[in-house]
Predict the 3D structure of the following.
Amino acid sequence: MAHYAFLDSNNVVTEVITGVDEDVVQTDLDGTEVGGTSAAWETFYGNFRGQVCKRTSYNGNIRKNYAGIGYTYDSGRDAFIAPKPFSSWVLNEDTCQWQAPVPYPTDGKNYYWSEDDLAWTETTDE
């Protein structure tokens, strides 16, 4: 199964659907063949919905990240990018994922990001 994301006028994802695999060709109600490529299905779904439509994938093989509602499609990078979680985080240009300015600790403990301290803070069991 293929997945497709619909974008608003600001390239923000409004919905993600399960659709037809890109290699499938079907006949439309008027007898026109539809499909055969990702671009053809993007056009079909986009025209049907009246929104721009882009293919996405769970494994990140298509457009870097699986699209989610609220993600932005960056046409220059041809990637879906999640909303920025904290103002101090920076975008990794290779993965198009946000990264903290300090790496997550690798000591096996659980941490949360403290934007006030710009540091990872260990969670406590209470």
Remarks:
- The chain has one helix and eleven strands.
- Residues 84-126 form one domain.
- The mean pLDDT is 91.
